[in-house]
Write a structure and sequence with these properties.
2 copies of one chain form a homodimer.
Chain A: H1 9-20, H2 27-33, H3 42-55, E1 58-61, E2 66-69, E3 88-92, E4 98-101, H4 104-116, E5 120-131, H5 133-136
Parallel strand pairs in A: 3-5
Antiparallel strand pairs in A: 1-2, 3-4
Helix pairs in contact in A: 1-3, 2-3
The complex binds zinc ion (ZN) (4 copies).
One zinc ion is lined by residues 92, 94-95, 97, 131-132, 134-135 of chain B.
Chain B binds a DNA duplex (30 and 30 nucleotides) through helix 1 and helix 3.
Binding site for Zn(2+) (chains A, B): 92, 95, 132, 135
Organism (chains A, B): Xaviernesmea rhizosphaerae
GO molecular function, one term (chains A, B): transcription cis-regulatory region binding
Chain lengths: 144, 144
DNA sequence: TTCTTGTCGGTAATGTTATTACATTATTGT
DNA sequence: ACAATAATGTAATAACATTACCGACAAGAA
């Protein structure tokens, strides 16, 4: 069912920039990284991002105003992960790593809660901010 | 445990503006509504919002870049609702109404998922965007 | 082919959201 | 009074996002 047509040049450049980054990028960071490739204006980035998000290749992190490449398999045209319907993100404040968590339980519970209230959900955002396993052990006392 | 000292003038004005609104307000909308009360600059709003959020009197809606007054009871110093630890918001795209949903199940599940990954959660955002019961029945056919 | 339609792209300007920097005033504790 | 802390005022700037307008190009219909 997924639209399987090829990405445009701008879309490829943007998704590549995100894939090569180990942390989320803001639209303007992406723009800066693509200057050499001919990008001049924010709109070039935002237009590409819109399409990529539409296809599920990129996620927007609302609490960061930034974007990440989806880590799920998109190689074959259909079923690009996210079975649960909602994805939760665990975002590390220290290193910027982002984990995608696909959990049917939470999805089901949210759907139930929405149904109870006769709320028709179009889109759900779940973002946990904190410290990943790699960073959690470090010395976080402000003064060394 | 809650700090029970009085709100400052600016903080009172900001929280009142939010309470009087039936939809979330952006910082700049709040600023506009408080011009007559002497507000001149965004920072006055943001500083008050920071304190109000710290106290749990106001919530920030990340997917909207806007703010709402908390609907829970804050009249007595302690225990200002939000027992579940996380609050989910159901935000109507049509009328702007915001419902706060306090659900221990989701909180527990998210904590479990975080623990599994040794992720130390500091703050969690859950926002459902959609249509509330009042608006869901309306004619949503674009042309009418 | 020619015409239309739709998608994509380039550019500029503008709109919206949030912060930094610095000076001042009010409050609180001693 | 004095020092320390919190709150405020103002200006400037940074960061994020959209609108408007125009041109290029491909696909499909006449
Ligand atoms: Zn994904
Ligand atoms: Zn980390
Ligand atoms: Zn609340
Ligand atoms: Zn509604």
């Amino acid at each position: 069912m997924t639209d399987h047509s090829k990405l445009t040049r701008n879309q490829s450049l943007v998704v590549s920039a995100l894939r090569e980054s180990d942390a989320p990028l803001s639209a303007y960071m992406i723009l800066d990284r693509l200057r050499e490739d001919g990008f001049r204006a924010p709109l070039q980035v935002y237009r590409a991002l819109d399409k990529l998000i539409e296809r599920g290749l990129v996620h927007r992190l609302e609490s960061l105003n930034a974007f990440v490449a989806c880590r799920h398999d998109h190689s074959h045209g259909h079923s690009h992960g996210h079975q649960g319907g909602v994805v939760a993100f665990a975002i590390c404040e220290d290193c910027g790593s982002v984990a995608e968590i696909d959990d049917p339980t939470i999805n089901a519970r949210l759907m139930a809660l929405a149904t109870d209230r006769h709320f028709k959900t179009e889109k759900t955002t779940i973002e946990m901010r904190g410290h990943c396993s790699a960073c959690a052990g470090e010395s976080h006392t402000p003064q060394a």
